[in-house]
Amino acid sequence: MILEMKVPSPGESITEVEIATWLVKDGDYVEKDQAIAEVDSDKATLELPAEVAGIITLKAEEGDAVKVGQVVCLIDTDAAKPDGAAPAAAPKAEEKKEEPKKEEPKAAPAPAAAPAATYATGTPSPAAKKILDEKNIDPATVSGTGKGGRVTKDDAVNAKASMGTPTGGSRGSERSKLSMLRRKVAERLVSAKNETAMLTTFNEVNMTPINNVRNEYKDAFKAKHAGVGLGYMSFFTKAVTRALKLFPDVNSMIEGDYKVAYDFADISIAVSGPKGLMVPVVRNAETLSFRGIEAEIKRLALRARDGQITVDDMTGGTFTITNGGVFGSMLSTPIINPPQSGILGMHNIIERPIAVNGKVEIHPMMYVALSYDHRIIDGRESVGFLVAVKEALENPVELLMDNNPKKALEL
Questions:
Q1: pLDDT (tens digit per residue) in 280-290
Q2: What CA–CA distance (Å, rounded) separates 68 from 35?
Q3: Which of 133, 154, 378, 402 is catalytic?
């Protein structure tokens, strides 16, 4: 029996996928549920498992765009599973062969002597010199074809100014098609720039209070919560969900002529995966504890790293946090993740001198940036939101932990 394998629907509204990589070859025997291909949709990369066991015949090439429901391979279920390779036969003893007599190496012919340079070599004729001067070309860089290497008028006319001496380094290039996911990301980013009134406001955060809390409790936190670390993201997520309650316009979106406001905070967290930047969503982050946020971010990051992230994992966020600081970024203007109206950019932490109570002190400082859609968020809300985030991060014990860090960290 020949089974036609068709492309399953990877999610609502997705009508087309692209064959990213075949994990098997034409004619291979595949087992049921064996991953046979990776397919790219405009939202994620998914594995395509074999529906039955048998010999596979591929019907699409890598890079082909195929419709949902289209046949991409055939599996012959009646084909017998091939036996393992037979053991190699013992090598036969080689017969002794008479070694050919080695010939004495012949002396290499002496290289021909280079023609001796003369007083005329590289010397331009008067007419040639005038032309070279007008072209601002050094006569020494021109090969003469006249008698004794003299630079003739024709040599000067045909000479061109040097654009640099080739060094022999590689000058290769490679052309490869962008994945469907990367193309969709590019399309969405251009759309965000063209269709939103995007502005960015900046502030800076003194990270000393958060560092003090982490230094005091991170070891106990990790020991208590089965290896889940106490990172910066839980503090930032907590600060963001608090600020979204104070400034709900930042947690809203535009749909045509309407504003859609949400009473929950689904926070998209940008993480780096093998296929590029992914933004899985931490659902109802406003209800989660520090442990809950860190555990969920770790789970989603591992799924992204292992290529197991799904469309559902990345759909429906209401606000995004991105951390360019892990790559060394000091300051940037993050781009909105449509249809959301705001995104918070974190950056690297650098010790800088700041004024504290009239004195100069050295503190670990981080620049933060809020990009927002000015069509729906005014300056008062955007600046107020970012100031609220800053206040919470600089006073985490009172504003994020209700003055009880042990209880907030579930220790």
A1: 999 999 999 99
A2: 18
A3: 378
